[in-house]
Amino acid sequence: MEIVYVYVKKRNEFGRQCNFSDRPAELHVDILPDPSLAASFIERDPCDVPIQCTQEMSEHEVNTERFESVSRGINHVEGGWPKDVNPQEMEQTIRFRKKVEKDEFYVNTIMQLGSQMEHCIKQNNAIDIYQEYFEDEEVVEDSEEQPSAKTINVFRDPNEVKRTATSVSWHPDGSKLAVAYSSLEFQKATKDMSLDSYLWNIDNPNKPDMALKPVSPLVCLEYNPKDSHILVGGCYNGQIAYWDSRKGSQPLEMSTIEHSHRDPVYKVIWLQSKTGTDCFSASTDGQVLWWDIRKMSEPTEKLVLDPSKKGNLDNSLGAISLEFETTMPTKFMVGTEQGLVVSCNRKAKTPAEKIVCTYSGHHGPIYALQRNPFFPKNFLTVADWTARIWSEDIKESSIMWTKYHMAYLTDGCWSPVRPSVFYTVKMDGTLDVWDILFKQNDPTLSLKVCDEALQSLRVQDQGHLLACGSQLGTTTLLEISPGLCTLQRNEKALVTAMFEREAKREKILEARQREMRLKERSRSEQSKEDDGAKDHDGEESVEELIARAEADFYEMVDAELKKREKGDKQNREKDVCEEKEVRTGTP
Predict the structure, then answer these.
(1) Distance CA 345, CA 333 (A)
(2) Is the dihedral of CA 524, 527, 533, 536 positive or negative?
(3) Residue 200 maps to which CATH number?
(4) Per residue in 64-105, pLDDT tens?
């Protein structure tokens, strides 16, 4: 195991370049001929011998003693934390850092250690005088390639009866794919349809690395970010199961039927916890359930998505998608079948307070819901024929949206490396790549991946690879061009300005609409008051109005009748004249 840590520093940040100078040749050694050595040789005349600058050597083979070398290394882990602080927990480390930074000795200590650390780093820096230090920068400036994506591999469902690839999850190191297969069409599953889902190595599309064998087809499947051997899946029958890839294809434990969901589990997400064993799930039965995989007999917590906040399961909204951001451990969001996004607070005291607010703007189920990795206040929703970008501060409408497509959108996600790029897939088998800094009306890149509908989408954490799952169980692995997965200059600042500008615009428009509604309401109330005042004047005024309306009506009828009679008279006279002309033959 080779463990090497390289300190990298740009050439222009330290030292000076080596400058070479031109000078004449210098004689260092002069070896004179030795006549006494001639006695040791026999002259051969003529002699034609090719001469090389190096010594001539012959090939020899010898048996040597075998020597096996072993490379050993030491893993250095993060240390120096107190016993009560877990370095894996972001909240605890941030809290401890803030506490230390307030100490008056902190700055002095850092200044003292800084000079020593700088000395050690300089010792580890080695200068290569032939290295081109600014080669990369020149390449970046010169190359302006068109956005593109190319197919790397295709992973097909190995069974005869093909099923939909409903969910795709990347291994934390990006070397494997976990694909969940199931048929979501109601009562379309046949007896000979396989229940298995598979783990694929991205370099081997011919055979899956491992098969997962649940009791019911998996609708969703997720790798544990802390322990990559652990996977959790949500089944079509509502159960939750988890696997350890080191211990075989069978699930280690499953939730009991009576304490599970009543509908298919469409989404499972791992929570950020000390143990790394907590997750939560959502289903169209209107419930969000929290689980600890060490004890799957019943959920640790439950939330009913009742918008009236009464906890009534009959009035609950069916959940299709989930969103959880580790930097906001108390918040989570749910996308529903009814086109609403429900924002929730897990740490609220009562179940009614857990549902904070809703965002409405779609006509159908929200298949994808994800916060922007760089700007968590802004989130993406994919449903019906559009993708929309929202701001948490504006509940009335989204701040940006795509045009209405001809095909239904089925999934979408943000790029993990570029804040302005997101991906969507459609029912016509097309992948769209959107760069909102480049243009908002049309996708930057539209790629026909396959002929059948695409149902799932996931981007690798490094942002270079993307996996799309189709209706017939084909998972296509695509490599994105460098321009779409390399952070551009000033991109964060530009996207921040764009989101703020659009949010401000929506606030202004909403305030104007609110003002117009108030004016309309006050106008209608005023007209009601006027009608009431007229009623108080007496019944004669009403009768007069009715009589006047009747008189106007009959006047209009009489005028129309007279007009028609006049027209008929003119037509008769015209007919008589024409008949006379025919008889006499004179006009």
Answers:
(1) 9
(2) negative
(3) 2.130.10.10
(4) 777 777 777 777 667 778 877 887 788 888 888 888 888 888
